[in-house]
Amino acid sequence: MSEHTAQRRVAAVTGAAQGLGAEIAVRLAADGFDLVLLDLRADSLDKTRAEVEAAGARAVTIAADLSQEEAVSTAFAHIEERYGRLDALVNTAGGSGTDVVRSLSDISADIWRKVLDNNLTSAFLCARHAVELMQRHGYGRIVNFSSAVAHGKAGPSGTVGARLPYAASKAAINGFTKQLAKDLGYTGITVNAVAPGLIVPAVGRIRDVFEALPAEAQQATRDAIPAGRTGTGAEIAAAVAYLVSEEAGFTTGAILAVDGAES
Ligand SMILES: NC(=O)c1ccc[n+]([C@@H]2O[C@H](COP(=O)([O-])OP(=O)(O)OC[C@H]3O[C@@H](n4cnc5c(N)ncnc54)[C@H](O)[C@@H]3O)[C@@H](O)[C@H]2O)c1
Fold this sequence. Notes:
Layout: E1 9-14, H1 19-30, E2 33-39, H2 42-54, E3 59-63, H3 69-83, E4 88-91, H4 109-135, E5 140-145, H5 163-183, E6 189-196, E7 199-200, H6 205-212, H7 215-223, E8 231-232, H8 233-243, E9 255-258
Parallel strand pairs: 1-2, 1-4, 2-3, 4-5, 5-6, 6-9, 7-8
Helix pairs in contact: 1-2, 1-8, 3-4, 4-5
C-alpha cells in the first residue's frame, strides 16, 4: 500500500447537499474515503452527512458560498485543520439556477455572473486551495462538472433555465480542466471533468423539475437522447469513482461524457 492510501483517503465534494453531489459522496464513502461535504445549503448537508456516516466514513459539513474567495479560504483552512490532507476534490456545485430566462434580452448581467460564479469561479477557487494541500504529498485527483449542454442544445430549455450562461460556464469548465491538467501534469495531481447529459438524481432539485414537466415533455426529452432514457446519479457517481481512484493516474485532461450519446 502506498503512502497516501495507508490511512483513509479524504475527498471534498462540493454541491453535496442534494442531487448528484450527495450520491457521489455516498459512493466515495463506500469506496473508503472520508468526506468533506460543502454546499450553500446547510440544512440538507446534514442529511448527506448521515448517509455518508452510515456508509462507514467520517464526515464534516461546511456551509459556504463557494464562489466567494474568503468563504473558500475559510473552508479549506477547516479541512486542513480537521484532516491535514486532501486526496480528491469533486467540484459538483453549480447548475443553471432558478431564474427561467428564455430570451437573450432576459439575461441580466447579474444572472450571467451568478451562473458563471456558481459553476466556474467556485471550481477555480476550490481547485486553487485543493492543489496546495495535494502538492504536500504529491498526489491528488480533481474532478470538475461539465455538461452535454457545453456543446449547445436546440429546442425548449426543459430542466435548464438560464441555458446560455450555463452552456458558456460548462464550455469554460472544459477549458479550465484541460489547461489545469497540463499545468499540473508533473505533480501527481490529475484533473478531469465529467460531462453528464440529462441525469435525474435519486433526490434533489433536478428530479423535482423533471417530474414537474408534463408526461409528454418528459417522454420527448427521453426520445431526444440516443440511449432513450435519462441517466442516474449512480452512473455519474461510478464515473467519478473511477476518476478519483489511484488506478486512473494516467487519465488527465479528459472530459468524460456520461450522456447516453446525447453530445
Ligand atoms: N442533473 C443533470 O442533469 C446535470 C446534467 C449536466 C451537468 N450537471 C451538473 O452536475 C452538477 C450537479 O447537478 P445536480 O443535478 O445535482 O444539481 P442540483 O441543483 O441538485 O445541486 C447543485 C448543488 O450545488 C450547490 N451550489 C450551487 N452553487 C453553489 C455555490 N456557489 N456554493 C456552494 N454550493 C453551490 C446547490 O446549493 C446545490 O445543492 C452541477 O454542476 C450541474 O451543472 C447536472
